[in-house]
Amino acid sequence: MSFSGRRVSILRPAETRRFSASKDLSQNEKNSETHRHFRSAHEGHKPHAGLDASRASTGVIWCTERANEHGFSERPGDWANLGQGAPEADDDIAGSFPRPTTIPIDSAAREYGPTAGIKSLRAAVARLYNEQYRQGKESQYTWENVCIVPGGRAGLIRIAAILGNSYLSFPIPDYTAYSEMLSLFKNFSPIPIPLSEGDHYQIHPDKIAEEIARGTSVLLTSNPRNPTGHVIQNPNLAKIQDICRDRATLILDEFYGGYNYTTDCDGTTLSGAENVIDVDQDDVLLIDGLTKRFRLPGWRIAWIVGPKEFVEALGSAGSYLDGGANVPFQEAAVPMLEPSLVKQEMKALQLHFRNKRDYVVSRLQEIGFRIKDIPEATFYIWLDLTSIEPPLPESANISDGLNFFNALLREKTIVVPGIFFDLNPAKRRDLFDSPCHHFVRLSYGPKMEVLKKGLDGIERVVRRARGENVGPTLEDEVAIEED
C-alpha cells in the first residue's frame, strides 16, 4: 500500500496559528528546578541549539519516574495516580459483567497464532461493528476486515509501518505516544495541525480540506479526543470522511468511543464506522480494543478495522514487528463481544464514569478552577492552570504544568503536564513555548476514593500557594514519622 508524497509548505504565519496563545513563562519559571530537570531528561526539548538530546523519557513514563523519586514505587497505595490513562479494572461497577478470573489454555492455544489474529475473534469484532454501526447498510464488515493486535500502540506501529511515502497530518494536542510513533518511521513526514482552545479544540471539515489540498494523504487523530475529552460528532465527522474519501487515509483512534456522555448514557458508542460507504474502498482505519471500554488494559488485546487490503498488509507487518496477540486471551475475548452484552456494558460504564466526571469537575470548581468545557467523552479533564479565580500570586510558581506536577508530587498525587500532549516528533520547536504548558491532564479513571485523595492534594497545593496554613505536605509528614 503506497501513497504519493507531494511537496507542501508546513510553515504558517504566527498570527494565523490555530493554537491558542497562552501566558509567556517568566524567566524565573523557565529556570525553576523542575524545568531544568525536564530539559536534561526529555528528548522533545533541545537544551542547546542544534543538539539532539539522546535520553528519551516521555509522557506518563517520565511522570512515573519522577514520582518514584518521591517514593511512589515503594508504597503506590498511598498515592493518588491521576496521571495514568487507565480505567478502574475491578468488578464493582453496577450493571457491568464480571471479567474472567481464569482462562483455559488448550493445546492449540499453545502454538503460534496468526499475526492478524484468530478468525473467531476477528469475526466477533466484525459482527459487533455491523450490529452497532452498519444496520441496514449494504456493505458489511467481515472477519477479513479485522486485524487483531497486541495493544493500541502495536496497532499504531503496524499502521505506520505499512504507509507509503506521504505527508501525515495530526491535530494537537493529542495522545502522547503518537509523538514516538511518528518519529520512528521515515516513510512519511508528520505535520501538526494546531487546534485552538478558543475554538474548543474543534477539528473543522474545512481545515481537513485545506490540509488535503496542501498535500496531506494521511490523517491521524483520536476520537473521542485524548486529552481534551472532546468528540468529533456527526455531521462534522461524516463531512470529514466525505472529504477524505478517495483522497486520504483517515486513521481514527477510537479507544474512548465507549465513554460517550452525549446521549444521556444510553449505551450508544461513537465510531467512524457509521459513515463508511464501502468497507473495502473507504480508506478508514479504526483502532479500538479491550483496553479502555472493556477495562482490561493488562490483556493487550486490540483491533484495527478497515479495508481487506490494509488488513492483509497489517497482518504481514505483525510477522516482523510484534509477532501477534496472545492466543488464549483472544479466545477469552470472543464471548465478551456479543452485541447485546456490549450494549449493557457500555450503559453501565457511561453512567459510572459520568458520575465520576461530575464529581471531579465540581471539586475543581470549588477549589477555584474555571472549566470552560465539560468533557463530552473519555475520562480526562484538560485543566487550564491559569483559569483559577481569584488569581494566584506570581510567587506561587505553579501556573505551568511542570511546576504544578512537581508540587503535587509532595502531596503524593500524580497528573500529566500538558506539555507532553503538544506532539513534537520532528523536534523543530522549543516545547517550553507551547500553549499546552499551562495545562495538566487529570484522569478520573481510578476509583472514587483515589479521586478524592488526589483532589484533596490539589486543594492543599492551591491553598498553600494562596498563603494559607494547611500544614506540612504528605511527604513531609512521612519524613517526620520516619524521624
TrEMBL record:
The keyword Hydrolase does not apply. Residues 26-46 have a biased composition (Basic and acidic residues). GO terms for biological process: amino acid metabolic process. Residues 81-453 form the Aminotransferase class I/classII large domain. Residues 19-52 are annotated as: Disordered. Keywords: Aminotransferase, Pyridoxal phosphate, Transferase. Signal peptide: none annotated. GO terms for molecular function: pyridoxal phosphate binding; transaminase activity. Its cofactor is pyridoxal 5'-phosphate. PANTHER family: ASPARTATE AMINOTRANSFERASE. Belongs to the class-I pyridoxal-phosphate-dependent aminotransferase family. This is Aminotransferase class I/classII large domain-containing protein. It comes from Talaromyces amestolkiae.
